[in-house]
User: What shape does this take?
Amino acid sequence: MKKILVPVFALIISLFVLWKWTLGFSAFTVFSYTLNAAGDVPRAFPDIVMENQDGEAFHLGSKHKYILLNFVYLDCPYVCHKVNNQLEHIYFMFDSTEVPSMLEFVTVSFDLQNDNVEKIKKYRSYFGTEITGWTFALPYQTTQKSFDNFLRDAGIWKYTVSATGITNHSTYLFLIAPDNRIIKVFDPFRDSNQSIVQQINQCIKEHAI
Assistant: This one.
């Protein structure tokens, strides 16, 4: 009997530790752990002042429309640009009755040290002149610590490798309602463009502004 109880007890302890580490078996990566630790949706999006590609300061909440928000590391060798190329396809799946009057895309830079207004404006220009409902932005007059706290509260994991300066991060897309609450979180590597568009349209239809 003792020979059976020892491995059973060890299994129970192991499962309990795994349950704690994965927030109740709901998060198995550092990305999903950080997202889930920030809280269930709908929840308030943390407030921060941003600066757009024209040097204008703004709050997301002051836009009073739906926001599809993502974060980008402009010096990323691959993933970030793939996500933004996917966002470009999603952008053109909406029509002019929705973007920019009811929905706006906002892409925020991770890199406080190397990015500036000129750099994000140039990056935005790569997507053409027709993206009137897509804002590229930087955190405005904030410290690295404050920005890191903001990312954690939003549910975004970010880590800069000191040896290379390369930033690793999660790639979630946040749908933020006009009342500044996160109501949907999309994974661009798991959710299809069509699914993302359908869910956003459904939210706009159910909560017309």
Notes: The chain has two domains: 1-36, 38-206. The radius of gyration is 20 Å. Confidence is low (pLDDT under 50) at residues 8-28.
